[in-house]
Amino acid sequence: MEGFGPRIAFELPIFGGIPISDTVVNTWIIMAILIAFAVLASKKLEKIPKGFQNVTEAIVESLNSLTVQTMGEDKLFFAPYMGTLFLFLLLANLWGLLGLRQPTADINTTFGLAIMTFIAIHFFGAKSKGIGGYLKGFFEPLPFLFPLNVMGELSTPISLAFRLFGNMVGGFIIIGLLYGGLTSLSNMIGLSFFPIFQAGVPIIFHLYFDLFSGVLQSFIFVMLSMVFISMQMD
Amino acid sequence: MLGLVEFGWTFVFQIVNFLILYFVLKKYLFKPITGYMSNRTEKIENAFKDAENKTKEANELYEEYKLKLENIKEERNNIIKEATRRAEERSDEIIKVAEEDAKKLVERATQDIEREKQKAVNELKDQLSSLAIITASKVIEKEIDQQTHQQLIQKFIDEVGEVTWQN
């Protein structure tokens, strides 16, 4: 192993070769899972929900109500975006449980999502306040604070992206090192063919870095996106 | 192997991927299920409202019918009372009429009896007198003395008495 960057899965043979990293491949798998879930969920809707429909309705309902609670009744139309974001981040962050590289442990993914939040903040802010009101916001509370306001706004996506990326890549590296270390430990007692210590010990780390941190970070990312957008709009 | 913090094509791919995922999930998960649920909520609300209205209506009808039933009871009582009263009146009348009739009948009977008696007496008197005349004529035909006369009359009366009262 030579560093913790994303590996290149294959190269598209156009524009002189576009590298496709394992981040993208994992994202495609997650997308396939979510799309399959969505299509299955909405294929057969019954008047009285049963089994699977109950689950999907509970998921959609809780995402809708989370959006309404955080952003307000009038911003329910953000629910699909925020819901997609939450479901995607949840699956992406828990991807490490399968021993695969989390798509969120790649700055390209988190920054891409943060940029979309950034665009949403300013697009919907300007739309709801009008261009004048939106621009006026940069000169408040005092005009000479304009550069600071701009800096603040620009720092939002960066902090969003790096918070998630840092958490996930940190967990990914620590767990990677742990597996390496446990393999070495197994080698030391002469079990090079069977790294016995890899069984059991990493569970605690997976629980913390993948499950706890993963779920928490997806929630934080979505909540912050909602709060920033609704704050700029109100 | 790419760098740990290195921007590249992945950035573009991830944005495109996420937008695709967003549109697909919006179309296939969020829109239909949210729509379906709000639809159902509306339906349930309507059903509840409907049920409430129906209950109210039923209660109103119930009250109405109860009132009607009470009226009917009262009416029935009135009718019975009226009928009883009329029957009593009628029976009184009938009894009175019957009594009157009976009285009249008795009166007439008494009168009839009286008349018959009178008639009988009169007839008797007539017969007596005619017989007397016959006797008298017989006596006149045959001149008889006082004694014989007395005897004859006595005999006649005796005879007549027996004969008359035998009929």
TrEMBL record, chain A:
Subcellular location: Cell membrane; Membrane
Keyword Transport annotated: yes
Membrane topology label: Multi-pass membrane protein
Key words of the record: ATP synthesis, Cell membrane, CF(0), Hydrogen ion transport, Ion transport, Membrane, Transmembrane, Transmembrane helix, Transport
InterPro entries linked: ATP_syn_F0_a_bact/chloroplast (IPR045082), ATP_synth_F0_asu (IPR000568), ATP_synth_F0_asu_AS (IPR023011), F0_ATP_A_sf (IPR035908)
Keyword Cell membrane included in the entry's annotation: yes
Domain of life assignment: Bacteria
Annotated Gene Ontology cellular component terms: plasma membrane; proton-transporting ATP synthase complex
Pfam families the record matches: ATP-synt_A
Coiled coil: none
Main location (coarse class): membrane
An annotated GO BP: proton motive force-driven plasma membrane ATP synthesis
Segments passing through the bilayer: 20-41, 76-95, 107-126, 164-182, 189-209, 215-233
GO molecular function, one term: proton-transporting ATP synthase activity, rotational mechanism
Family: Belongs to the ATPase A chain family.
Primary role: Key component of the proton channel; it plays a direct role in the translocation of protons across the membrane.
Name under which the protein is recorded: ATP synthase subunit a
Species: Alkaliphilus pronyensis
Gene (UniProt): atpB
From TrEMBL, chain B:
Record-level GO cellular component terms: endomembrane system; plasma membrane; proton-transporting ATP synthase complex
Signal peptide: none
Keyword set includes Transcription regulation: no
Subcellular location field: Cell membrane; Endomembrane system
Main localization of the protein described in the UniProt heading: membrane
Keyword Cell membrane applies: yes
InterPro entries in the cross-refs: ATP_synth_B-like_membr_sf (IPR028987), ATP_synth_b/b'su_bac/chlpt (IPR002146), ATP_synth_F0_bsu_bac (IPR005864), ATP_synthase_B_chain (IPR050059)
Keywords: ATP synthesis, Cell membrane, CF(0), Coiled coil, Hydrogen ion transport, Ion transport, Membrane, Transmembrane, Transmembrane helix, Transport
Molecular function GO terms recorded: proton-transporting ATP synthase activity, rotational mechanism; proton-transporting ATPase activity, rotational mechanism
Transmembrane spans: 6-25
Membrane topology category: Single-pass membrane protein
CDD domains: ATP-synt_Fo_b
Ranges in coiled-coil conformation: 41-126
Role description: Component of the F(0) channel, it forms part of the peripheral stalk, linking F(1) to F(0). F(1)F(0) ATP synthase produces ATP from ADP in the presence of a proton or sodium gradient. F-type ATPases consist of two structural domains, F(1) containing the extramembraneous catalytic core and F(0) containing the membrane proton channel, linked together by a central stalk and a peripheral stalk. During catalysis, ATP synthesis in the catalytic domain of F(1) is coupled via a rotary mechanism of the central stalk subunits to proton translocation.
Quaternary organization: F-type ATPases have 2 components, F(1) - the catalytic core - and F(0) - the membrane proton channel. F(1) has five subunits: alpha(3), beta(3), gamma(1), delta(1), epsilon(1). F(0) has three main subunits: a(1), b(2) and c(10-14). The alpha and beta chains form an alternating ring which encloses part of the gamma chain. F(1) is attached to F(0) by a central stalk formed by the gamma and epsilon chains, while a peripheral stalk is formed by the delta and b chains.
Family (UniProt): Belongs to the ATPase B chain family.
Name the record gives this protein: ATP synthase subunit b
Species for this entry: Alkaliphilus pronyensis
Source organism phylogeny: Bacteria, Bacillati, Bacillota, Clostridia, Peptostreptococcales
Gene symbol of the encoding locus: atpF
